[in-house]
Specification:
Blueprint lengths: L1 E4 L8 E4 L10 E10 L1 H8 L16 E9 L11 E3 L3 E2 L5 H4 L10 E2 L11 E4 L2 H4 L1 E2 L6 H21 L7 E5 L3 H12 L3 E6 L2 H8 L3 E6 L5 H9 L3 E6 L4 H9 L1 E9 L6 H4 L5 H6 L3 E4 L8 H9 L9 E6 L3 H9 L6 E6 L1
Parallel strand pairs: 10-11, 10-13, 11-12, 13-14, 14-15, 16-17
Antiparallel strand pairs: 1-2, 3-4, 3-8, 3-17, 4-5, 5-9, 6-7
Helix pairs in contact: 4-5
């Protein structure tokens, strides 16, 4: 099969022929129809997530949907021809966290495209598939499904479950990339008043299409101060969808007393993303600092139901469809923070 292979960090992926995936008794082989290009892939490409990855050469890619081609002898929930979406976080189903419904923090979690070969290829093997694969409703196309694969579902979990957004609340979202735009659309659909913060006017204009009631270019103004003036005291929830030190700090500074900071963006800082935070402010204002990663499998049904009913429209986040051979252009755009919206591979 054809795949885009990571042979060295920070070097262009090599599109070449590789061996087809091998079927296991508990696995499923998919023919991929669409695979999103996510900043987590970029972090993998740069080496920021090398500890989570198998040895090189390696195939990245984790936002995918496709059609079942082969099923292992132990598979009961899927058959050839089924349309499916692949959750990013793959639990073992047996640890205490999985048994409590939190597959996204499984003690033995595997991540598609990191722990095993990913979706920048024509085919992929999903292990433990009866637990870690989901049927895709007929009314949802593959492009929309792949737009949900990581960024959108990560934002859904962060906004709805971890952030516990409520109608009428003020929500500030730092970063209007894929995760940020997803958070804006989801929080708006939940009835919140969303403020988008970024340094690029084109991204902020795009954010308005997904429900942002106000936008702030933090290159031109002091964003926390502007948010406090606009909300008359500060945001109830502030989401950092980027992970750099400035957005972490500014997100915390944007909160009203007893506000909730939700960390969605992964940091590239050394020592596991070590980032100084204003501890005294957190203490005196009783702020909550909440981490959020991926999404547990039980939450997918609610998200898919909202997409089916048209209350959420992740497909509208897609601004570019590319061929597998164009993957390095997509990574270059991410390196330079160029473009906006979501890029999806639809030609393999």
């Amino acid at each position: 099969m054809k795949a885009a292979v990571l042979e060295a960090f920070n070097e262009p992926l090599v599109v070449r022929e590789v061996a087809d995936p091998t079927l296991t008794p508990d696995g499923v082989i998919l023919k991929l129809e669409a695979t999103g290009v996510c900043r987590s892939d970029w972090h993998g490409w740069t080496g920021h997530m090398k500890n989570a990855m198998k040895e090189l050469p390696h195939i990245l890619g984790h936002e995918m949907s496709g059609i079942v081609q082969e099923v292992g002898s132990n598979i009961r929930n899927f058959k050839k021809g089924d349309r499916v979406i692949v959750p990013f976080s793959q639990g073992d189903g047996t640890c205490p966290h999985c048994q409590a419904g939190h597959h996204n923090v499984c003690d033995n979690m595997k991540m598609v495209g990191f722990s095993f070969e990913g979706g920048f290829a024509q085919y992929i093997h999903i292990p433990n598939a009866d637990l870690n694969l989901l049927h895709l409703p007929d009314s949802i196309d593959f492009l929309t499904a792949s737009a949900m694969g990581c960024r959108f579902m990560t934002a859904f979990h962060g906004v709805v479950s971890r952030g516990a957004v409520r109608p009428g609340e003020w929500v500030a979202v730092y970063g209007s990339g894929g995760v940020g735009l997803s958070a804006i659309q989801i929080a708006s659909a939940a009835g919140a008043n969303v403020i988008a913060v970024d340094i690029a006017d084109d991204k902020l204009d795009f954010a308005k299409k997904f429900g942002a009631v106000a936008t702030i270019n933090s290159k031109n103004v002091n964003a926390p101060q502007a948010i406090k003036e606009l909300t008359k005291g500060g945001a109830n929830i502030s989401i950092d969808a980027l992970g750099i030190q400035d957005t972490v700090i500014n997100s915390l500074l944007s909160l009203t007393k007893r506000g909730r900071h939700v960390q969605l963006g992964i940091s590239s800082n050394p020592n596991g993303g070590m980032t100084p935070v204003p501890v005294n402010l957190i203490t005196m204002n009783e702020l909550q600092l909440v981490g959020s990663v991926s999404m547990p499998i039980p939450e997918y049904r609610n998200m898919l139901n909202m997409v089916e009913q048209g209350k959420l429209k992740p497909g509208e986040l897609v601004t570019k469809q590319i061929a597998l051979e164009q993957i390095n252009e997509a990574f270059d755009d991410m390196t330079n923070y160029a473009g906006f919206g979501v890029t999806v591979i639809t030609k393999f």
